[in-house]
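haha ok so turns out i had the wrong file open the whole time. this is the CORRECT one, sorry everyone. sequence first:
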Amino acid sequence: MNALRFKTVKTLVKQDVYYALRSTRGLLFLVFFGVFWLWLFSKLAGGGAQWLANPEGSFIIGWLFDPEIARSLFVDRSATLSAFFLLAISTVPLFVLFAASDQTANDIGSKYLRFLTPRCNRIEIFIARFLGATLLVAGAYVLITLIASVMAVFVDDVSFSGIIADTVLIALSLIIYALPFIALMSLCSVIVGSAGLSALVGISVYVVVLLVVSVIGIKMPAVADTVSYLIPNATKSMILRLQWPSLLQVMMIVPIYILAYGLLGWRIFAKRDI
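then structure:
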C-alpha cells in the first residue's frame, strides 16, 4: 500500500492537530509562546517602539541588521507593527524548533506507529505530521500578528489600510520563514525516538552551523555564505525587507529546503523500524 490518499492524510492531520493541542509538548509551546508575547505586547502597547522610527532608532536597526532594512521597516510604516515583526522573525527558530520537534519522534519511541500502519502507509503519516505541525505554528503566528495589528491601530498614527496590507505580508512572511524549520524538525524527528532529543538535535544543528559560519566568515566570507545556506536562516535577510518582491524570491527558495530536509527524513523514516 504505497499510494498517497489525500483523505487519509486529511484525517491524520486533524488527529495530529487535536493531539498537539492536548499534549504536553503542544501545551508547553502554547504557554511559553503566549507568555513571551504577552510580556512583549505589554511593552509595545505603551508606544515602546516609537523611538525606532526616529533617526537614533533607525541607526541602531541599521547597525544591527542593514540600513536598507531599517528604511523599509520604519519609514511610512507602523513602528509597533515593524518592531513586532523584527522580534517575531528573530525568535521563529527558537519557537518553531520546539513546536515541531515531535512530528514522529515519540511515536517511534513508543512504537505507536505500528497501530497506524495497518490503516495507512508511511508516506501518509510522514506528510500528515509535517502538515499538522505547520498548522499549529501557522495558527500561532497568525493570531499574534492580528493582535499586534490591532494594537498598532490604536498606538500608531498610520493609515488603517497600510496596517491591513502589512498584516497580510507579515503573517505570510513568518509562516514562509517557519516552513523550512518545520521540515528540518521532520528530519530530526525520525532520527531520534524522543521529542526532547529531537528538539535538542535541531537546536544543536542550528547553533553549530551559525557558529561555524561566524568563525569561517572572519577569513573566508565567500565560504561562510555558502555554508550558511545549510540552515533556513539564510533567507532571513530577504524576508526582513518586508516587501513582496523579496518575499516572492524567498518563496522560490523555501521549497528547496523543504524538499531537501523532507527527502532525507523520508529516506530514514521509510526504512526505520517503527
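The longest helix spans residues 122-155.
again sry for the mixup
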